[in-house]
Amino acid sequence: MGKMKVSCVLSWLCSCLALWSCSLTLRGCEIIDEDPGSTTAANLTTAAPTPTMAETTVTGSAQETTAPTTTTSATTTSTTTTTTGTTTTTKAPLGVCWGGQKYDGAAGECSEVELRGATRVISNTCAYVALKGGTGVCWGDKSCGADCPNIDFATEVYATELAFLALNTADGSGVCWGRDESTNYYGENCSGLDFTGITHVYSSATDFVAWNSNSGTGFCWGRNGGCTDQDFTGITQIYSSSNGFIALNRNAGTGFCLGKFAHRHYCSRYDFSATDLEVYAFDDGFVAGPAGGQYQSSTMDVGSLASGSLTGTTHTYSTDKAYLALNMNAGTGVCFGDASKGGDCSQIDFTGVTSVHATEGAFLAFKKASGTATCWGDIDCSSVDFTGVTDVYSTIRAFLALNRNSGTGVCFPTDASDDDCSQIDFTNVSHVLYTRTGFLGIKSDQPDRLSTAGYRDHFNPFVVPS
Ligand SMILES: *[C@@H]1O[C@H](CO)[C@@H](O)[C@H](O)[C@H]1NC(C)=O
Ligand SMILES: *[C@@H]1O[C@H](CO)[C@@H](O)[C@H](O)[C@H]1NC(C)=O
Ligand SMILES: *[C@@H]1O[C@H](CO)[C@@H](O)[C@H](O)[C@H]1NC(C)=O
């Protein structure tokens, strides 16, 4: 069985184009231009479509800025340009966002910004990075790294909760930024680290691990410091959770823990020597044990789990206090943890489930073929119609059921007014991303080339049964 990535998705918000910096003056969406000589502030509060505008030319230093004067029934887009003799052309907004206004700072307050040409967009809990043609731009809340450095030719960006790493595998350089480089509580300071040859990067909520699987070396940075005492020689697999990491040498039957789990009392429960070792990762940590045997966990109560009951698991999912191990092949699921937060799924029929999504207190099991879904935990979705829904997304508070074909979406629950998306136009939304409580729908101009990764995707559990 292969390594399966859990798809507990959170949500998103604002989209911006790489080549210009827009700043939502009133609502705080700030994007840093990759060109330090050009500072463009665009009031995108209600950016109106400006279909007649030409594409921004990226290659030259001369970018033409046209302040849209289109007056819509609502508000007028106003683009202001303050550049050193250059101008930038703004284009029709390619994003819609909602949610997050209360908790995600400026990341939750952007309205519509453009992401034309973006090929990769990554979020952490309250900021975004978009990569486009070897450059990157950021926006969101300053405490999450909205002020990002120029990212030249970054290969990929990784996220902890409040920081980013932009890795350039071509020259072995990496640059980190985020909440506070002097504390490095979230891995926002990686200065001096040499990323040459790094093949894998893992993150928890607060730490990064970089691994060179060819040379058998690796290093860590973030709240729990370096891991210079660990020898990565022979390591065959590394698994991440939001709390920490497990590195295994499956050939030798040994392993060690990193991040918060580096403390010996977390790791000492695990016996990595079993040849038929099963390791299941959840947001909070790991459940491990010999196939068919009793499971151990240093952070979750597995007392209720019958021996071997997780064998065959293909996906794992987590709310804040409950866990689901899904066997998508067999159409079965096992839940444990706080029953009020989704820890009891004994009544749920998992036959035909195509994906599961989680908020902090509820699971949603989606059956795409039949257009149905079931929720359990602290959210009830029995009144939601899933007919025609193509994709489901979640923040810690709310779900979005999107019908990509009809360009419609439903959000629930909407107890918090900012989770309501009934006014959002989902037409042409091709991707959805998220911060902690905010969603971003991207209307990509090149959807086949664009990929996204939410912050939980980087430290979301991996299931590696074999
Ligand atoms: C942005 O738009 C708002 C609402 O129309 C307006 O009040 C504000 O002055 C504008 N800000 C800038 C910088 O143009
Ligand atoms: C980042 O880490 C380096 C190396 O440990 C250190 O010298 C530097 O002072 C740190 N940066 C900040 C802003 O504290
Ligand atoms: C959706 O995309 C089509 C084709 O590109 C375009 O003609 C249309 O205006 C778009 N609609 C919206 C609401 O963005």
TrEMBL record:
Residues 40-86 are annotated as: Disordered. Residues 1-18 form the signal peptide. Keywords: Signal. This is Uncharacterized protein.
